[in-house]
Amino acid sequence: MKFVIDNLVKSYGKDTLVLDGASFEFEEGKIYGLLGRNGSGKTTLFNCINGDIPYNSGEFHLEVDGVVRDLIPEDIGYVLSTPTVPEFLTGYEFLKFFLDINEGAGSIVDAEKYFDMVRLKSSDANKLMKNYSHGMKNKMQMLVNMLSKPNLLLLDEPLTSLDVVVAEEMKELLREFKDGRITIFSTHLLDLAVDLCDEIVLLSKGVLTKVDHAALDDEGFKSRIIELLKEEDSDAELSDDVDPDAIAAELDKNDVKLEPEGWNSGK
Fold first, then answer.
1. 96-110, 120-134, 150-164, 239-253: which has the minimum mean pLDDT?
2. Which range marks the domain in which residue 21 is found?
3. Is 17 inside a domain boundary?
């Protein structure tokens, strides 16, 4: 199985070009590190793939057993950097709800096994998720994506703000889960990409470029990658100048909500 992005272009308004003919071919069974500065367009790329926002031109598709087809929602798992869970439910209730509406994802009789998969204690399963830590919410978000068995798993800086122990647990989960799917993990941290990912893809100046993983052992090469990322600071056309209000407006225009209605009854 392959996921192919071909000449993808995305701009916000007339003056802010974020993706400028981005192209790449991703293969099954690997974790790809999507490396780029904050604001380089990583989340925009994921939102285009997930159908949350429109793109200007280009296309992307799956190739399965030599057959080319468009992505469908069931193909995609999307883990946000800020986990969104229904805080008025316990972890167990959320898992049961998810399994009830996703036939074939699993059975609630195996709940203890599922919680063990993401290193959550059984005692935590019966706590309201509003009392969960950031890391515990992230684990619940990972769990339902693992159970849905997507062909393409998008992870938008999922280790942000996690403590060292939870971050290591999450990395181990991703390594265990990579077979049979394509995993794209976005980050602005070069050392994290090197540690976790099988392949590294640089998003810079709106294009995707493969980075030779072996060459990253060379400190001089790593320095050149960092310098290349720094160059975006002076590129007025591109992503560091993306207006967050413009992104929010486009998401709203396409009726995309970052938090499902009614999930957080405390708001």
1. 239-253
2. 2-79+151-233
3. yes
